[in-house]
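[[Per-residue structure]]
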Amino acid sequence: MRKLRIQGRAAAKPKVIAATGWDTFDLTAAIVAADLEGPFDVVTLLIGVNNQFRGGALTEFEAGLASLTDTAIGFADGDAGRVLLISIPDWG
């Protein structure tokens, strides 16, 4: 954010919804509770390792990730190019 401001670009303070240790279910519930209003210029989504750590099924993670991805794209005004998605579990 600081670099953007130095370059003369407007940058609002990011809205951080998640907390360390959450899985897809926790994040989904927090998004609903936060009652966010978009659209946002950029949306980031980093999720997944806690689903695996807690022993969740891959199918549950896939469903949660698909739903969260759709939500993130919606917050980006339907533009998937404004969404950065990082999922880090190793389901191997």
Notes: Helices lie at 2-6, 24-34, 49-53, 58-75. The chain has one domain: 17-86. Residues 17-86 form one domain. The chain has a mean pLDDT of 89.
